[in-house]
Amino acid sequence: MKKHSSNINFIVLYCLFFGWGFVTCLNDLLTPILKGLFSISHFQANLVAFAFFTAYFIGSLVYVFAAKFGIKFFENLGFKGLILLGLGLSALGCLIFIPAATFKSYGIFLTGLFTIGFGFTFLQIAANPLVLITGNPETGASRLNLAGGFNSLATAVAPLIGVLVFYELLQVKENPANLKYPYIFLTLFFVLLAFMIWKFLKIKEDDITVHDSSGKLFALNHLNLIFGMLAIFFYVGSEVTIGTNLVSFLSDPLTVNLQESVAGKLLAFYWGGAMIGRFLGSVALSDSKALKKLILMVLISIALTAFLVYSIGNVELKLVYYVAFQALAIILLLACKSSARMNLVLFSLVNIANLIVAMMMANTMFAAWAILSIGIFNSVMWPNIFDLGIANLGKYKEQGSSLLVMMILGGALLPLVQGYIADIGNIVDSYWVPVFGYAYILCYGLFYSQRKLNWIK
Questions:
Q1: What's the pLDDT tens digit per position in 127-142?
Q2: In whole angstroms, what is the distance from residue 338 CA to residue 433 CA?
Q3: If residue 66 lies in a helix (H) or strand (E), which one and from where to where?
Q4: I want to staple 66 with a disulfide (CB 3.0 to 4.6 A). Which of 1, 28, 71, 437 is the partner?
Q5: DSSP β-bridge partners for residue 452
Q6: Residue 196's domain spans which residues?
């Protein structure tokens, strides 16, 4: 593929990553809003994440079983067709918010979220391997990090725009019928994005991995994929459950007891940390000299932190903690070089320590920043796990990709577990749930193996 075509592909794909990141992050604001509107428990409120991420599991299951039973529908669509299908379903899900808001029905809201998530499944299945295979294979992880950076840029600005639109402009807590208007706009956005994909995304047959048509899940003969699926489950589950319950944590009397709208703005530091970390990770994996990397990473850190502070405005800030965690991330990224395993080990250890410290010092701003900074260390886990998980799968890479995406189910289940613990105990103690998740990722990095089995023949 020519360089010009590759560049166009990257631009279009990065727009796609931005779009689904923005919508996904709005769920973290929807959770407390719907909790207040319908007077429901933490467990019931976390059904927002459950509906959205269960759709990923079911969508991936449909995809895998279609391949298993020789149904060629998805294979005939190809990567581009899968993306267009996903965008169409996502637009439909946004339209479902119109009757949900009009009739003030929690069930219809959840149906809309499920449909959006179902559409996003096909975006994930197609876009992640497409970024990896389009271009130099040696820099695939770096490109996926950069794509993740745009996804995280969206998750950084989404809470800021969401707070402005939901709380200030539309005042949806007093006027729930207004919840439909942002999602009507998002419908138009998905239609525009579909046009961009249809018009500008160019894929040559040479770029596409040959499909396996045997109907068997040969990808599951690889231990790195099997344990990588669990790593994706716990990574997504931990990241989502922290974000979903973060507003509740920051506004709880047991902690720093912030106003809900202020806590919603601070959510931008959590998701913005993922944005910063992914851009830093992309630089760390580049071929530049160490000094040049360091200077560029520091400049990126300063610029993006300034962007977040400027965007959020006048809120309670003690940025020295946030800056210190970014400095630690830069040091660890440079120390890891290109070792995905070492990165997972070190970043998991930091996240476990941050969560434990935050629970022990829950009523201090340091605890708040310890949790908000976890986003920085989450940043490169997805591409590293994904890259390790589909390593050496050959023509089964797309099959492996769909199985990994299926395990986004963790984003549905772990928030429910945390919500249940918060209901029977308190929101602070419920943060032991992501500690367990990061402990598994730590073990995946430590004991990673590419050993091949032959149990599927």
A1: 877 787 766 666 666 6
A2: 29
A3: helix 47-68
A4: 71
A5: 222
A6: 3-202+218-446
The whole-angstrom separation of Cα 267 and Cα 25 is 10
Q: Are 92 and 154 in contact (CB under 8 A)?
A: no
Listed residue (304, 249, 242) closest to 276, CA to CA: 304
Of 128, 146, 9, 208, give the one whose Cα is nearest residue 386: 128
Q: How many domains does the chain have?
A: 1
- Give which of 323, 295, 298 is closest to 309, Cα–Cα: 323
All residues at 6 or more sequence positions from 179 whose CB lies less than 8 Å from its CB, including other chains = 33, 97, 100, 101, 166, 170, 172
Contact call for residues 206 and 1 (beta carbons, < 8 A): yes
- Report the alpha-carbon angle 192-211-130, nearest 5: 35
Q: Can you tell me the distance from the alpha carbon of 109 to that of 211, in angstroms, rounded to the nearest whole number?
A: 37
Confidence bin at 210 (pLDDT 50/70/90): very low
pLDDT tens for residues 356-380? 999 999 999 999 999 999 999 998 8
> What are the tokens at 207?
């770029």
In this structure, is residue 86 part of a structural domain? yes
- pTM value is 0.84
**What is the DSSP annotation of 331-345?**
HHHHHHTT-HHHHHH
CA dihedral 332, 338, 341, 345 (to 10 degrees): 0
Question: Nearest CA to 223 among 451, 455, 69?
Answer: 451
Q: Is residue 457 part of a domain?
A: no
Which tokens in the block code for residue 319? 């940025």
In a domain, 207, yes or no: no
- Tokens at 59, concatenated: 């969508």
Closest CA relative to residue 18, chosen from 136, 218, 152: 152
Q: Can you read off the two tokens belonging to residue 299?
A: 């400049």
Domain-embedded: residue 313: yes
Give me the mean pLDDT over the 221-239 stretch. 94
Q: What is the Cα 124 distance to its own chain's centre?
A: 10
Cα–Cα–Cα angle for 358, 230, 159, rounded to 5 degrees: 50
Q: What is the CATH number of the domain that holds 121?
A: 1.20.1250.20
User: Would you tell me how many other CB atoms lie within 10 Å of the CB of residue 8?
Assistant: 14
Q: What is the pLDDT of residue 327?
A: 96
Place of tokens 């039973």: 69
Q: How many angstroms separate the CA atoms of 282 and 145, rounded?
A: 5
Supply the DSSP string of 215-260, one letter for each residue: SS-GGGGBHHHHHHHHHHHHHHHHHHHHHHHHHHHHTSTTTT---H
